[in-house]
What we know:
two-stranded antiparallel sheet; mainly alpha
Amino acid sequence: MSTTKxxxxxxxxxxIDEPRTGFWRGLLRAQxxxxxxxxxxxxxxxxxxxxxxxxxxxxxxxxIQNASILAVLGVGMTYVIITAGIDLSIGSVxxxxxxxxxxxxxxxxxxxxxxxxVGILVSIGCGLAWGLFNGFLIAKGKxxxxxxxxxxxxxxxxxxxxxxxxxxxxxVPTVLTTTIGxxxxxxxxxxxxxxxxxxxxxGGIVLHFTRFGLHTFAVGSxxxxxxxxxxxxxxxxxxxxxxxGGLAGVxxxxxxxxxxxxxxxxQSQTNLNxxxxxxxGGTSLFGGIGTIFGTVxxxxxxxxxxxxxxxxxxxxxxxxxxxxxxxxxAVYIDQVRRTRAMRGSSQSLWRKFVSGGRGS
Length: 360
């Protein structure tokens, strides 16, 4: 009997059928693809419930526009979480960058592109500085990312409130509002969404087709192994957190353009919303796994839910319940998959759930 055991195990793993069905199995098992199917189902449900209001291009345009700023933040957060880190400070860095940029533009007193360009550079510069600060303490100081970014969250928001006295700045150059905030490309596509799309595409290309992206996955998969193959882990972590901060600075100027104010108190849940979207989209909190595409899909889940609930007359608070449930499910699925991969188990996800995690 012992002689028949190895072939049985080999068949159970699926190595015989893998060359023919590996791609489709991989696609169906990919969390980003599964979440995309969930998003499509949600859209279809709301479209059936409110075809005259929800299922209109004007409404989809609004959803896309509202998700654009979060998409920019999501690109940076995806890199951070792939390295098995976290950045809780992005919402506060967004606010701080927007505040400093608004103050500089107000001091210059102009409303032309010259003033606006200075404000854009200042906002991005502030974000890069905060990201560099976070990355240095994490990589060189060996302080856990949760503690560092939680501290910078309070510091950035506190400094923004000190600079403004807690009062929002509403003097924003009109050129930013009319061209970026409410401008359109090709007649109906929001300019702010096109800008976000550029960052998403570039972020995806860099993550999946460059050495920087490869090193990001390597650091998240095993920091020790990455060091042994020559990856400068400390330098890379600093670069990743600087990238996240810089994109928060970009989001800061986009927020100023869209809302024509600094919105100091309006970003308290931004960091959690972005983290939830990234994880829902298939990026693993344990590091080493993630896609920009999954993050974008994950961002639209709460955006569509909020919009659909408002249109159909359901209390929007249910959005938090639904997103929380999807988030917990996504993390559970990720944890089970990693456990199965480590153990080489062929047990199905459903059987593992109903059996309480016991072996087959």
